[in-house]
Amino acid sequence: MKKTVLILGAILSFILFKPAEAQESGGSDAAELAKKLSNPIASLISVPFQNNTDWGIGPYGGSRNTLNIQPVVPLSLTDDINLIVRWVQPVISQYNITGMGEHESGFGDAVVSAFFSPKASKGGVTLGVGPVFLVPTATNDFLGTKKFGVGPTAVGLIQANGMTIGALLNQVWSIAGDSDRSSVSSMFFQPFFTYNWKSGAGIGANFEITQNWKGNTTTVWMNPVMTAVTSLGKQKTQFLFGPRINLAAPSGGKADFGVRAGVVFLFPK
Length: 269
Hints:
This protein is mainly beta and 269 residues long. The protein has helices at 2-17, 21-24, 27-37, and strands at residues 45-57, 62-69, 72-76, 81-95, 103-107, 110-118, 125-135, 147-160, 163-177, 185-196, 202-212, 217-232, 235-248, 257-267. The chain has a twelve-stranded antiparallel beta barrel. The longest helix is centred in the N-terminal third of the chain and has 16 residues, at 2-17.
């Protein structure tokens, strides 16, 4: 897994720093795609594969790899309104987390969001609101809640001069599921910013803050990232790479260090 992360980092570095003339053809297209990718509710079909690898977790120095498969599909409802559907499906493999020598792997619970958003932003400002669902797709008791949940979600952002600044928020309450498992009341807050050059390359960061109201615990990750948009043949693609810094976690669950790497397949209209 470490080798895969290093290979993705090397690919991204090559794309970011290769000679400018190699990026000039289609550069304006790359810049427009990068701008849309900085917007979680842009009218753009995309299929991101985001891989997070974290080490030194908890008292046994465990490791966890989470591959988030998160397709985004915009649907036109009216002349003015889009419905942006986003499914986040984690695939998890972890070692020495639940005990020394223990290993769990499989699907985690899915998070499905549906944002109603205007097709045209006003003054660079884009807003979206809608429902979010917690779907108990976990294939291992340690990797999910065994609960079905629902709640509201919202996102807001502003874009100008290559810069994107915004935040995403959702709150989920469990409404059904295994009665032997604890109920869920969880808030997720993700402020983010990116800056994109005309070549399609970019830098940015986000904070991923999860508040478990039932357990009264807070988890905070900071994720700086480099990105680049390029073409693999005719396939428009974005690569991303950066460290993950665990600023806060429930007692005994903090990671020493992590890395995020990923690829996004783009399907512009």
